[in-house]
Amino acid sequence: MRNARRLKHGAGNAGNDAGIVGRIRKRSSTFGNTRRLWERLSMTGSNEFKLNQTPDDGISSVKFSPNTSQFLLVSSWDTTVRLYDVPANSMRLKYQHSGAVLDCAFYDPTHAWSGGLDQQLKMHDLNTDQENLVGGHDAPIRCVEYCPEVNVMVTGSWDQTVKLWDPRTPCNAGTFSQPEKVAGALFCTVVIGIDTCLKTVLFSCKVYTLSVSGDRLIVGTAGRRVLVWDLRNMGYVQQRRESSLKYQTRCIRAFPNKQGYVLSSIEGRVAVEYLDPSPEIQKKKYAFKCHRLKENNIEQIYPVNAISFHNVHNTFATGGSDGFVNIWDPFNKKRLCQFHRYPTSIASLAFSNDGTTLAIASSYMYEMDDIEHPEDGIYIRQVTDAETKPNEDNWDCGLCLSEQEIKPTRVSSCK
After folding, report:
1. pLDDT recorded at residue 124
2. Does the keyword Signal apply (predicted)?
């Protein structure tokens, strides 16, 4: 993690714009704004631009609003969470934590949740600019996600717990403990309804990353463990796995089709995994090398920090500390395209729900400690089917084994 990151304490909330996000409900206006933006970009011959008023320190997460590409939520090490109006290229709202914010998520188009080093979980009403301290963890909150199928917020922390939260109303329904020893020192404790926290699951390792897939929760922890839970019944672990990659897990994201997940590591590798435990399906899993550069005949290996799925095509983008973004076809096992090199490490990626837009956070992650580095930035890119849609010929490159690299067959000409 970013231990060397200096925490900066900036000013308080930006201007109070009541009803800022109420306009989201005016769908025709939203799509009109987006269309006009892309028309302006096409007139200049560009399909990408950089957001204004970006955070003053490292960018930890970018998330699009669930029903539009107009609004983007950004969390940062400068202790803020910011809401951007993407077509207008302007920051519409900013609220603050008392420490670096490590993750954020939309609950619905008008409510944001966030957590970080201050160990506090906040919910912010983006219409009224009012915030509510929902609860917290006993250590920094690393992950914040929303599961619409079960209607719960999920948080993962370095205190070795995952918590489920009711986003609708606080409740206190009692406490239920169900210890279960698994894989050595792993325990499961379930707590229902304490300070709006529906359930608490205790691990033996820090939570590094998590992703929801329908009613399933996929958690990546220290020690290269991967745990699969049923969010409707957190009393036991559905599947206990060890990462197929040899080094520390950096990111996990679930397939939109709910069949599996993609896992990345600090050692320039990505694994494509399937949830169905049957031997026939497990034969389909594979891993490959990526985000590696040869300089003077020496291979430089970079962490793969970010993964984001295209909700329509089930392809996915990866971002690494090499500054590149690649888009992969997991079915035909090949790279669809590679974008130009960004100024510094790719810290976070997010496709919009309709798959037309990709948010790219270029932010130094202190891989080389505290050195002079390029300015952090957020880039908004319009993507096409040619860059994100699998080829229909189902050609298999045959180079997707764990010790081989997927070779590109079509590389984007965009600079």
Report:
1. 96
2. no
